[in-house]
Write a structure and sequence with these properties.
483 residues; 30% helix; five-stranded mixed β-sheet; single chain; six-stranded antiparallel β-sheet
Length: 483
């Protein structure tokens, strides 16, 4: 049993209870096979919001009621009678229940539901995207779905209401929730000036309660100290031996990770740093969590503002911090400190749709190599977005632009990274770079991706590669988050 709350007011809106099957007793090849079920990508969700602002399209949110149970059972399955339940045929000692529909708890429940929903949508005339399995098109309607939560995008509210009623007639139990407000744990606010804002104050409050933040703690203006990097600190006190910490490190990091991935691009670097040490956290890592919690307490209302700028177009900002965490003292204990870090932000019409901060998988031998790997990694995200936008355009929808402009920071010998991306030259100092990092060159040659230099001061992706001083951090945060 669980409580469903309004993400704006935190009031309880619904009490939910359901019967679950014990999927832990299932055997592969006997009563389940494949379990994977796709969900819509976050860049598709954000793109839908941006398109709605740009072209004045209508949005409508729906919820599939008890979604899993709407699909029929995939294979014959039986379950014991729940405690306290008896039938006219006998007790739980002599009888079992045969399942006739999909049930929560089954290993394959999500996949069975997804296949059932896709079949229903295809019967209703929808066409499934070839880029994102959870994006569907029908005439001038676009539909995205995240398990059992969907958003319709269309020309008018009346058209979307009619479409929802049509799907209800196809034996789909759908609740029309009106204009999007709470979607997959994210509060969506529609402002009078036409902009949207993603925030997660309820999740932040949950994190603060779990950490046990005391009123006496000072507010922090940046998410992590700018004067140092974290390492594995194997000689320091283990986190769980410190009496000063009263929270579960992994649980907090999991919540922070969802927060960073959905509505807080400003903390993506700090959260990734903390997540690296989830297996064996130390005292310093616990203090870093408290520091981040104090920053979140100071910036509860901060999120991502989607205020479009049609002149901005489709842009990607990629950056790298060359061996920034390397420290001779810790290099023997933690060799990963020698690796560089990649960070990037992908913007559409001035709105962030993808962001990431990742440790590179190999040790770069120069700033050129580190920057080039960061650029290559960023373009792995850019290319499918470019393909999705192009597909949406081919389906008859209006789009702003389909070709991205990629900005890679040019300082020191990073002009070499720009040259390496534009011209396939083989040089002694770069010929060792793996072929997999050259995947985007054909797009550059065809003119589908254009790469430009950008000064250090104007590079917002710097925020995703290292802890910055307050002034620089706040400036980049405003560029990405909107405030």
């Amino acid at each position: 049993m669980r409580k469903k709350r309004n993400l704006t007011t935190n009031e309880i809106t619904k009490y939910k209870a359901r019967l679950n099957i014990n999927g832990g007793k299932q055997e592969y090849g006997v009563n389940y096979y494949e379990t994977y079920a796709p969900v819509v990508t976050w860049f598709a969700i954000r793109l839908v919001i941006v398109f709605a602002i740009l072209f004045g399209w209508a949005l409508r949110q729906v919820d599939f009621v008890l979604a899993y149970t709407q699909a029929p059972i995939e294979v014959d399955m039986y379950m014991e009678l729940p405690q306290g339940i008896e039938t006219t045929h006998g007790s739980s000692k002599t009888h079992v229940l045969q399942l006739i529909s999909n049930l929560y708890g089954q290993k394959q429940a999500g996949r069975v539901w997804n296949q059932y929903l896709v079949d229903k949508l295809l019967d209703a005339g929808y066409v499934q995207s070839s880029i994102d399995d959870c994006v569907f098109y029908k005439d001038n309607i676009l539909f995205i779905v995240y398990v059992d939560d969907g958003i319709f995008l269309g020309a008018s509210e009346e058209q979307l209401v009619r479409e929802i009623k049509l799907l209800q007639r196809l034996s789909l139990d759908i609740e029309d929730q009106g204009h999007p407000s709470d979607y997959v744990g994210v509060n969506i606010q529609h402002h009078r000036n036409g902009s949207y804002e993603f925030t997660q104050q309820v999740l932040i409050n949950t994190i603060l309660d779990d950490v046990g933040l005391k009123p006496s703690y000072k507010k922090k203006l940046i998410p992590m100290k700018s004067s140092r990097y974290l390492s594995n600190q194997i000689d320091s006190t283990p986190f769980y031996d410190c009496d000063s910490f009263q929270f579960n490190y992994r649980s907090i990091v999991g919540k922070l990770n969802y927060l960073a991935q959905t509505s807080r691009p400003d903390i993506i670097f700090a959260v990734h740093q903390l997540a690296r040490y989830s297996a064996d956290p130390r005292e310093d890592h616990g203090k870093a969590v408290e520091w981040l919690a104090m920053y979140l307490n100071h910036t509860k209302t901060l999120g991502v503002i989607f205020k479009v700028d049609p002149k901005a177009g489709f842009e990607c900002y990629a950056d790298a911090d060359f061996a920034g965490a390397f420290h001779r003292e810790f290099s023997q204990q933690d060799p990963a400190t020698a690796k560089s870090r990649s960070g990037w932000y992908i913007m559409y019409a001035g709105c962030p749709i993808v962001w990431a901060s990742k440790l590179q998988t190999l040790v770069a031998l120069s700033t050129t190599e580190a920057e080039y790997i960061a650029l290559s990694s960023a373009l792995r995200d850019v290319i499918p977005i470019m393909q999705l936008i192009d597909e949406i355009k081919r389906k008859g929808f209006q789009v702003l632009c389909t070709l991205p402009h990629v900005h890679c920071k040019a300082f020191e010998d990073n002009s070499g990274a720009l040259e390496l991306a534009r011209l396939p030259k083989l040089r002694p100092r770069t010929k060792h770079i793996a072929v997999c990092y050259h995947h985007f060159r054909e797009h550059v040659r065809q003119g589908k991706i254009k790469i430009f230099p950008i000064s250090t001061d104007l590079q917002p992706a710097d925020m995703a590669t290292k802890a910055l001083p307050e002034e620089t951090f706040v400036r980049h945060r405003k560029t990405i988050c909107g405030k």
